[in-house]
Each structure stands twice: as C-alpha cells, then as structure tokens.
Amino acid sequence: MGRRIAIVEDEAAIRANYSDAFARQGYEVSAYADRPSALAAFRDRLPELAIIDIGLGNEPEGGFTLCAELRALSQRLPIIFLTARDSDFDVVSGLRLGADDYLTKDISLPHLLARVAALFRRVEVLAEAKPTEEQLDRGDLKLDISRLSARWRGESVPLTLTEFWMVHTLSRHPGHVKNRDQLMADAHLVVDDGTITSHIKRIRKKFAALDPGFDRIESVYGAGYRWKA
C-alpha cells in the first residue's frame, strides 16, 4: 500500500469523493466524519498526512481543535486544512495552530493531489539527506536533519515539518536572499505568498519565545527573506 492519509470531513459525499481520489492514486486512506473518532484513531496509530475540515458536525471549530490535538501527538505530521472557509482570519488561525497548508474546497482535485504529493516529496527529501548534511551548525542554530529537530542556544524549537524545511533553506546560505518562489521550490512547497508570510511569522514567534532578541530572519523589502550571518 502507499502512504497513509487520513481525511476528516463531516459531509459524506465530499469525504467519499476525496477518499476515492486518493485511493486511485495508490494511497491508503482512512476517513472520519467527526473529531472524536478521528482523534481516537490517531492516538492508536498516526497517519502520514492528515487532511482536515474546520467545521466538523456540531463543532464549528472542531478542525482547529483536532489540529492542536494532533500537534500535541506529533510536531512533524503533515497537516492540511481543506475547508470552505477562506477568510484571512481562518487561514492565519490554521497556520498558527501548526498546519502545513491551508486549501479551500474550490481547489481542483489534480491541484489537491499535487499539493499532497509535494508534501510527501519534502518528507522524502529530508529522509534521503546525505550523511554530510545530517547536521547544520550556524552558531546558535543547530539543525539535525535526520531527526528533523532544531535547537536554538541549546533549547529545542518545536518546528513543524514545513517550518523546519524553511529554516533549513534559509540558514544553509546565510546572507543570501530567498524570494518566495525560491523558498517554495527549495522547500518543496506549493503555496501562495500569504501562506509563506504566515509561516515566517510563526517561525519567528517560536524562536522569540526562547530568545526575545531573535532577529536572524530578515525581511528584504520586495525581494524575500534571508538568514542574517
């Protein structure tokens, strides 16, 4: 069987449609109609990717709650929100809770499949990192690529998969500006500009929680971002 995907969607027709589409691509699919059943299954066995709607049955914010619960179980599990809600507030809320991507249900199935494939490619690239690149040392920053773990001044930084890969991309070449397209390509992301911005803000907050003076990720107006040497 292929990689294990979990779909959490309360509308039966949509749930079946997505499940069938992923199964046809060779994925092993588990589908859940509500947060409690999904969480019970996840506590027993985590999927390799979770696709979650925000409104779940009688819980208008159930997907947000489930995302936070999943993040408590695993920082690395890729999570995608797939929802009819497209407000900036919901997008930012979803990314702040630790989602790797946020998509609306008007997305085409081929596009959705491409985004999922891109996430899995990123997992594979990290898993296949050459031994010489298993550790990245930038002074206060230490990245362990084999374990997908980051430390800042000796303290662990709880980065999601997407956040880890973006920090890795920026810090590999300190001082070099990465525009959004380069960040997406290097980090195997297929996201829009607003999503990149939200990820960068979240990364900064996580480092600042350990070090209020953290200022290594610099915005370069009109150009992108760089890791200050």
Strand order of the largest sheet: 2-1-3-4-5
For the record, the count of structural domains works out to 2
Oligomer status: single chain
Instruction: Characterize the main sheet.
Output: 5 strands, parallel
User: What is the CATH top level name of the largest domain?
Assistant: Alpha Beta
Task: Give the overall shape, derived from the CA principal axes.
Answer: globular
The low-pLDDT segments are: none
Distance between termini? Answer: 45 Å
Can you give the mean pLDDT? Answer: 85
What is the N-to-C succession of helices and strands? EHEHEHEHEHEEEEHHHEE
Structural class: alpha/beta
Measured on Cα atoms, how large is the radius of gyration?
Answer: 18 Å
Explain the overall architecture:
The protein has 229 residues and is an alpha/beta fold. It folds into 2 domains: 4-127, Rossmann fold; 131-227, Arc Repressor Mutant, subunit A (Orthogonal Bundle), CATH 1.10.10.10. It is 43% helix and 20% strand. It has helices spanning 12-24, 35-44, 62-73, 88-96, 109-127, 161-171, 180-186, 193-210, and strands at 4-8, 28-32, 49-52, 79-83, 101-104, 135-138, 141-144, 149-152, 155-157, 217-220, 224-227. It has a 5-stranded parallel beta sheet, with helices on both faces. Strand 3, helix 3 (62-73) and strand 4 form a beta-alpha-beta unit. The N and C termini lie far apart (45 Å). The mean pLDDT is 85. InterPro entries: CheY-like_superfamily (IPR011006), OmpR/PhoB-type_DNA-bd (IPR001867), Response_regulator (IPR022305), Sig_transdc_resp-reg_C-effctor (IPR016032), Sig_transdc_resp-reg_receiver (IPR001789), WalR-like (IPR039420), WH-like_DNA-bd_sf (IPR036388). Residues 133-229 form the OmpR/PhoB-type domain. It comes from Denitromonas halophila. Keywords: DNA-binding, Phosphoprotein, Transcription, Transcription regulation, Two-component regulatory system.
